[in-house]
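[step 3/7] fold_predict: job queued, chain A
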Amino acid sequence: MIFENKNILITGGSRGIGKEIALRLAKEGAHIAIVGKTTEPNPKLDGTIYTAAEEIARCGPGKVLPLPGDIRFEDSIRHIVDTTVATLGGIDILVNNASAINLSPTEQLEAKRFDLMHSINIRGTFLMSQACIPHLKKAANPHILNLSPPINLDPRWFGPHLAYTMSKYGMSMIVLGLSEELRQYRIAVNALWPRTTIATAAVKNLLGGDFLMQRSRTPEIVADAAFHILRKPSFENTGNFYIDEEVLGQEGVTDFTGYAVNPAQKLMTDLFL
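[step 4/7] structure written:
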């Protein structure tokens, strides 16, 4: 198993892309720590941090550690990282998947929604990465992977939803900066973004409902791409902005039909591409 005895910390692991990455890597023998805020069932959200952990545990022989936490707060981040290291013995890979989205234009966006996106997407990603660096330095093939887009300065990605674009590009700027800063320690820092919209709770509840869900791919395509990125040698692959479809294409995958929620529908290209 490629990830046997590797310790992987994933934020936003209760559902969607984060959970699928956890499932994929657990099948390869990894020990998984997942972070999430959902501890009680919610009719609008699929599962909790604990039900996700149970599902992940059935996939492979590794340990699974559910960590209720909120990466907006420094004490929560310290608890997440310290507990992961104490329980699993270290951190080999950090996946910064947790993210908040709101596509409101500037005049309609409440300050608390602005703060939420920037507190999670930028501040949380930065501080989670910062807290993990001392442990990643000790790993044999350390990686940080952010779920964020390539930086595209076309004004059409700023005009309709400036605050959200700023927050996601902030995550991408962290990739640019940390990949260079941590190169000397052979810690790879990369970004991954889907070619199409992905069928997640955010898409269903906040963006386009069933209409957009039917024109999306499943989170498995992002998880499969993450698997291939994270197994690469860290000292050879850093500072990249990967697109899921391109990663799989380089691995010889030519038919992506199986990832479509509804193969009969035309797929919707994701933001920023």
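[step 5/7] annotate
The chain has one domain: 7-259.
The mean pLDDT is 96.
exit 0
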